[in-house]
Structures are given as structure tokens and as C-alpha cells.
Q: What sequence folds into this?
């Protein structure tokens, strides 16, 4: 086998040599840290993924050694391969940061932002992304889009309102199960992930769509509302499984197994696909051989301690002091007594869509 | 009268049938190309002609043809893009409906030049009756030995298939068209690889517009050099313009690209002036996605030169003060038209047609539509104008395919040139519901700095 030529590529002034055919994103991931662009739709294990979310856009300031012209537009780093002598700007380019902020804003305008009740919170890529690139306020003043509910069977919960249409689950179902029964229906901002003819997904490996989903659109029904991920302790474990590798991460609290997921690498990508039996049905510690605690490079906003310190390190009181930074705030107004949110006659639970400020307006009649 | 190369025979009765078309000199170009020329010399001839793609982007056709990869043993394909969905554009429809054999003839020559034995016409679903016309023309050509096996005894086999789309604007984008042709969801592919390397069924493919492929016929007939003499500069040959809007004579016109915009709108040979004796307010010169221009910038460039109907002159001044030839959908707006409503209508179209694959376009088009609707209904705020500008700026250039740009440009141009009208709408919400802003200063002479 002939040796693959190595290409020299400079990303954010850091030079690295990668084999020809590597994408800019993967080259940047080799450098690691902040240089690696975020990716919401690209998944190295899924063929054809990427290019859709546009969060990984980078500026190519020098095309290659042979053709040094810069690329006219920002390019999707997950689908652009490196050239020898290429110079790429990611976080050092204002254009990139500006475009990325724009993409995050676009992704969020129709996202319900229901993180407090979402099972994905704490390990949600969109949460991280919006923390790093989002604005604190919104400029979107309209009702968010809603979808009819689809039932995907006993194990998987689909929340289309949270979906960012990354297509990862479609690729997973297509490439892993060989029997795709769900896909994207409709187009534009009313496009949705749905099963054809409301069929439930029945395949041994379909549970992996939960792991590949970057947001809380596909969640585990056996874990739903049971616990928050940051309270759980991830443990590497395995079992002798006839269908899959059996290598999983258990999420425990005490001795209780709350959920089972595939092992994920530092980019949040699954290392080995696991089967539905392992994922949904083996919820006893006795089913598993525990290997030890899983060291997860927790990318989540909570784990990274963006809010205050690292979780588990600081007690809430100390956290508060750090947040207050010497100030001593006083409660000026009890918001519960003045806000319409708590008016019992408005039953928000009856809404079939995310609540909007107009729902809180006093009744006219 | 200008030169006519495509529509010169369109008025002849019965030209739709093979007999009449053949009697009037049709299929001579096929005979010449297949018997006297070889694929390379045809590509060379098209290159010499300077023919530019008529679908909107204006990319030199000969150059595109020469990019096609020729790996050993892999079939190549030519696909004719008849998914003419750009609002305001209906030239291909006219061509296919009236002289279908011209397209078939162009397709045979182009297929020969590119080595495509299976050639496809992808036609938009809304043109429900045209596939029948095309299929009949194909049958007739086959019956007379111009299609099928061993055409004219040259050993070249070619079949043409007509594929109907299901009514999606996005399938006019070449990679989405290929996906749709393969029977998949019409999502644009991420480029590279370009279709010339991996197109239909991963084989090298060239996708060309109906008018481009039809123009190959006169190029072969009169020769590339002769063809290049028509027109100005890099805008060679003739162009079909589908004129619509508030004009006296809407329709499809074939122009050689030397006439001025003013002549095109006001002369009786073409549009015949603005309807009902009104005044010209604005115009979209190349189909809905290109920037709208106010009357003063449309008729004269900022340098004070009269603007001509060709690629370079219409684009003069970039998008700041110019526009683009686009697909030739010439939409004229008179003084009674409201730019805000007009922009809203376009935004609604792009929102509806966005495929939903990449986030800026999927979410941005819907957002722009909502804001424009709000302004149009008199609920707008001043900050909405800046917000619109910001949204379009973040869509443009950041999407997979040009639909994002196409959605952003009309909004950008409307704000750039008609900002005062948007402001008036917001400041006078009640009045704006009753009357239009009118001609305002848009037709005033432009100040040319010395």
C-alpha cells in the first residue's frame, strides 16, 4: 500500500499535518480545544452526514500552496477536504463568528427552549452551542412552529418541536438498520422527521437514533423524566450480548441503573452502536460487568461550569456567593404575585404548542 | 428587428410537428454535427460561440462541457433542466410548447458532444401538458431515425426521456434536480463533488437549461464565430426574455443583447410601454431572485450610461446599484405597486420553497416572511428593517445551495433601494393600508458625481 501523502494545514495559526482527504473539521479536531468548530449535523460514523447545520463554517484564507486564492464564501468544514498549504480561520475570523452566531440564532428561533423539562439538558449540543454563541435575548417575536405528535413506539419519544433537522437519525436508520421507516416529510421550516404512515420503528438498532440526536428531539422513553443527567454517574460496563458489542455506559444513581447509552467520545459521537435490548431492557446492575467510572469530557454547559464552578465541586451556597460577586441583592418584588404566568385560570397545559407571551395576556371576556 | 435564432420559426403553422419543422430546415444541424463534426469540435464550436448558460448563473456553456470527467467505461449523462420555476420566467415553456423539436435537436447534438446515450429532460410538474408535447416530438424524431439506435448511420445511440417533477422550485438547482431524477427527496447535494465529476447515479453529468441547449442548434448551423458576432462583449448570441408585469405587451421576446433597457420597455416591438399610461417605478430584470432596481437605476447606470439588456450592463455596479440578467424573467412594476407587499410575496415564495436542509435558509426565510407580513399589515417597527437586513446578510452565502442567496437578494435590494418606502409603511400604518407610496423619487434622475 502506498503511503498517503501528508498535507500541511494551518488552522487558527496552528499547523498540523494530516493525510490527504481529511476534512478541515477532522484536522481541527486533531488539534482539539477551541479550534475544533462545533458540529450539529456532522457525525463521523455516518456516511453522508454533515453540511446541513452550517455551524461548522470556517473561512479559508488561503486555498492551497498551488492555488493560494482564498475561497470566496465560508465553507462547511465538515465537508471540505484540506489541501496542502491551506490556511483556515475558525475562531480567529470575525466573519466566521458572526455567521455562527447567525446560525445559532436561526436554530433557536423555532426551538422551544424548554431545557428545564427536557431530558437532553446537560448533554445537549444545542445548549452548549447557544451558550457559546447565542444572545441572551431573542429578536424573534412570533409564535414558534409546532407539529402534530407522532408516536414512534414504546421506546423512543419524538419531540419534533425541538428538532433541528440534522438528518443524523435518518442516516442512522438508513445505514444501521437497513430498513428505514422514517424520514423527512415536507420541506422548508415545516419539514419534519416522521415515520411513514405513522409506523413504529422496530429494529434492533434503532435506539441509536437517541444517541446521535444532538438535541432533545429523540429521547429514551424508559428514562424520560426520571432524572437529570448531571445527577447520574456514568460507568463503563459490558455484557455478553449476542447482537451488539455490549460495550455501554451505564448512568447510575446509587446502585440503580437509570439509563444505558452507547459510549461516546469527546466529540459526543458513539464509539460502538448498541442494540435495543442492551439499551432499554437491561436496567439492573446485575446484568452488567462494571468496568469502572467513565471519564466523560463533559461538554455540557452545566458540567463545564459555565454557571459557576464545576458541578459537584461547589455547594450551592458558595455558588451563589460567586455569582453575586460581592453584591447583596434584595428581593424587590415577588414575581409570583404579579406575573400572569401563575394565574390559575390560564391553563397552559392545555396548549398544544410551546407557550407564547400572548398566551399570558389577560382574558378579554 | 433584431436577429432571431431561436424563435425565427415559431410563428409557422404546425411547426410543432416533425414534418413542418424538417421542411423548414430542422435537424440540419444534427446531420452536420453527427456526420461532419466530432464531439471535440462541437465543444470547441460552443466554446467559440461564447454561449453562456441561460438558466440564471450565466456560466459559459462550452467551459462547463469541457469540465465533464471522462473515466473509462462509465456512462455520461446530459440532463436538460426544464424545471423553470423562477417567478417571472416562462421562456422555456414557450420554447418547449411551440417548437419542441428545436430542443430535441439541441439535445441530440449536445448528447453527441458529451457522449451521453441516455439523456433526460427534467420538467416541472406544473407544466402538466408539455411532457406530452415533448414525448410526441421524441417519438417523431425516433420514427425518422434521429433518435434511438445508430442515429443517421453514425453508430451513435441516444435516447431521450422526459421526467416530470412534482412541483418544487428547489429541483431547478442542478444537484437537487439530480437527486429528484434518481427518485429521492429533492435536497441539493453538497458540492464538491460537482455533477461534472459525480452527478446522476454518481456518473459524470452535465445539466443545462432548455434555452442553452436549444441555442446549440443555431451555433452549429451558423458556426460559433458567427454566433459570437451577435451581441456585445461576453454577452453573445440572442436571449429569450419573458416580460411580464405592468406593461402593454407581456410575452416572450428574443433579443440580441445590444438593445437598451429603455428600448426594451418602451418600444412597440417589445414591451410597448407601461400599461394604462402609468409610470415605471421599478423592475426585476432577471427573475424574482435578482435584485429589484428603481426606475432611475434601471435605465441608467450610476456612471450615467444607458443600461443595456445584457449580462455585463445589467450587472454594472454590482448589487449596490446593479442587478443581474438572471434567467430573463423581466418583471415590471408601475407606480401603483407596493414594494413592501411585493417583497413579502417573494419572501413567502422562498419560505414555501426552501427545502429545509440547512438551517439559515430553513429558519431565515420563514422569519423574513413573518416580519414582512407584519410590516405589510401595518404592525411593523423601525427596528424590523434593520433586523431584516441582518437576517438576509446571515443567510446569504452561508447556505448549501443558491436558494438561500435567492431568498436574501430580493429583500436586500428592496431595503437598499426602497428603505424610505418601508419607513413610510411603518410610520403611517393606517395610510399604508389605504394607498401606495407611489412613484416617490425613484424615477428622479440620478446624480452622477463628476
A:
Amino acid at each position: 500500500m502506498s503511503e498517503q501523502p501528508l498535507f500541511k494545514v494551518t488552522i487558527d495559526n496552528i499547523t498540523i499535518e494530516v493525510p490527504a482527504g481529511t476534512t478541515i473539521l477532522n484536522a481541527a479536531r486533531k488539534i482539539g480545544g477551541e479550534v475544533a468548530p462545533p458540529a450539529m449535523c456532522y457525525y463521523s460514523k455516518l456516511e453522508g452526514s454533515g453540511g446541513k447545520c452550517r455551524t461548522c463554517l470556517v473561512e479559508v484564507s488561503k486555498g492551497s500552496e498551488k492555488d493560494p486564492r482564498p475561497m470566496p464564501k465560508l465553507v462547511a468544514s465538515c465537508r471540505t477536504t484540506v489541501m496542502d498549504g491551506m490556511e483556515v480561520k475558525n475562531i480567529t475570523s470575525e466573519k466566521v463568528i458572526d455567521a455562527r452566531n447567525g446560525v445559532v440564532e436561526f436554530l433557536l428561533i423555532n426551538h422551544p427552549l424548554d431545557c428545564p423539562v427536557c431530558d437532553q439538558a446537560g448533554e445537549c449540543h444545542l445548549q452548549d452551542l447557544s451558550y457559546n454563541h447565542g444572545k441572551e435575548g431573542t429578536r424573534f417575536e412570533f409564535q414558534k412552529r409546532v407539529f402534530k405528535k407522532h408516536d414512534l413506539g414504546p421506546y423512543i419519544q419524538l419531540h419534533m418541536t425541538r428538532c433541528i433537522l440534522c438528518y443524523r437519525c435518518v442516516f442512522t436508520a438508513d445505514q444501521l438498520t437497513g430498513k428505514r421507516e422514517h424520514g423527512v416529510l415536507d420541506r422548508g421550516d415545516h419539514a419534519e422527521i416522521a415515520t411513514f404512515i405513522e409506523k413504529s420503528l422496530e429494529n434492533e438498532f434503532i435506539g441509536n437514533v437517541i444517541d446521535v440526536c444532538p438535541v432533545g428531539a429523540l429521547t429514551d422513553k424508559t428514562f424520560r423524566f426520571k432524572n437529570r443527567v448531571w445527577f447520574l454517574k456514568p460507568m463503563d460496563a459490558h455484557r455478553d450480548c449476542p447482537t451488539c458489542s455490549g460495550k455501554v455506559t451505564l448512568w447510575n444513581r446509587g446502585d440503580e441503573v437509570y439509563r444505558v447509552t452507547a459510549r461516546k467520545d469527546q466529540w459526543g459521537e458513539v464509539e460502538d452502536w448498541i442494540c435495543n435490548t442492551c439499551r432499554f431492557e437491561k436496567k439492573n446492575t446485575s446484568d452488567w460487568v462494571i468496568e469502572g467510572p467513565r471519564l466523560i469530557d463533559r461538554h455540557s454547559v452545566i458540567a463545564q461550569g459555565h454557571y459557576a464552578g464545576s458541578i459537584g465541586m461547589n455547594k450551592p451556597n458558595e455558588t451563589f456567593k460567586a455569582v453575586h460577586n460581592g453584591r447583596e441583592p434584595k428581593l424587590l418584588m415577588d414575581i409570583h404575585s404579579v406575573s400572569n404566568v401563575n394565574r390559575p385560570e390560564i391553563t397552559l397545559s392545555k396548549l398544544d404548542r410551546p407557550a407564547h407571551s400572548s398566551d399570558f395576556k389577560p382574558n378579554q371576556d | 428587428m433584431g436577429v432571431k435564432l431561436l424563435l425565427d420559426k415559431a410563428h409557422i403553422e404546425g411547426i410543432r410537428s416533425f414534418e413542418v419543422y424538417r421542411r423548414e430546415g430542422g435537424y440540419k444541424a444534427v446531420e452536420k454535427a453527427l456526420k461532419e463534426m466530432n464531439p471535440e469540435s462541437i465543444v470547441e464550436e460552443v466554446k467559440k460561440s461564447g454561449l453562456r448558460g441561460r438558466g440564471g448563473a450565466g456560466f459559459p456553456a462550452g467551459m462547463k462541457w469541457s469540465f465533464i470527467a471522462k473515466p473509462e467505461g462509465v456512462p455520461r449523462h446530459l440532463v436538460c433542466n426544464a424545471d423553470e420555476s423562477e417567478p417571472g420566467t416562462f421562456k422555456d415553456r414557450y420554447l418547449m410548447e411551440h417548437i419542441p423539436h428545436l430542443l430535441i435537436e439541441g439535445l441530440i447534438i449536445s448528447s453527441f458532444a458529451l457522449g451521453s446515450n441516455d439523456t433526460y429532460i427534467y420538467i416541472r410538474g406544473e407544466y402538466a401538458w408539455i411532457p406530452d408535447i415533448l414525448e410526441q416530438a421524441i417519438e417523431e424524431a425516433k420514427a425518422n431515425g434521429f433518435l434511438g439506435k445508430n442515429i443517421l448511420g453514425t453508430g451513435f445511440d441516444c435516447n431521450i426521456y422526459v421526467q416530470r417533477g412534482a412541483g418544487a422550485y428547489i429541483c431547478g438547482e442542478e444537484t437537487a434536480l439530480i437527486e429528484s431524477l434518481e427518485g429521492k427527496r429533492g435536497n441539493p447535494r453538497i458540492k464538491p463533488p460537482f455533477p461534472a465529476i459525480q452527478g446522476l447515479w454518481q456518473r459524470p453529468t452535465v445539466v443545462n437549461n432548455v434555452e442553452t441547449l436549444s441555442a446549440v442548434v443555431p451555433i452549429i448551423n451558423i458556426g460559433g464565430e458567427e454566433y459570437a458576432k451577435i451581441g456585445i462583449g461576453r454577452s453573445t448570441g440572442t436571449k429569450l426574455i419573458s416580460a411580464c408585469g405592468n406593461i402593454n405587451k407581456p410575452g416572450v421576446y428574443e433579443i440580441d443583447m445590444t438593445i437598451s433597457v429603455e428600448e426594451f420597455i418602451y418600444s412597440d416591438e417589445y414591451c410597448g410601454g407601461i400599461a394604462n399610461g402609468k409610470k415605471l417605478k421599478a423592475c426585476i430584470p432577471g427573475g424574482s431572485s435578482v435584485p429589484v432596481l428603481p426606475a432611475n437605476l434601471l435605465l441608467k447606470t450610476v456612471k450615467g450610461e444607458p443600461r443595456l439588456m445584457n449580462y455585463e450592463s445589467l450587472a454594472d455596479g454590482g448589487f449596490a446599484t446593479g442587478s443581474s440578467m438572471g434567467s430573463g424573467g423581466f418583471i415590471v412594476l408601475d407606480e401603483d405597486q407596493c414594494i413592501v407587499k411585493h417583497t413579502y410575496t417573494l419572501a413567502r415564495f422562498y419560505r414555501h420553497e426552501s427545502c429545509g436542509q440547512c438551517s439559515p435558509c430553513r429558519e431565515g426565510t420563514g422569519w423574513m416572511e413573518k416580519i414582512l407580513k407584519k410590516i405589510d399589515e401595518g404592525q411593523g417597527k423601525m427596528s424590523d428593517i434593520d433586523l431584516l437586513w441582518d437576517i438576509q446578510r446571515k443567510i446569504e452565502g452561508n447556505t448549501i445551495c443558491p436558494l438561500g442567496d435567492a431568498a436574501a437578494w430580493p429583500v436586500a435590494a428592496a431595503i437598499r433601494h426602497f428603505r424610505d418606502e418601508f419607513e413610510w409603511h411603518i410610520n403611517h400604518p393606517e395610510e399604508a393600508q389605504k394607498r401606495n407610496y407611489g412613484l416617490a423619487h425613484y424615477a428622479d434622475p440620478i446624480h452622477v458625481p463628476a
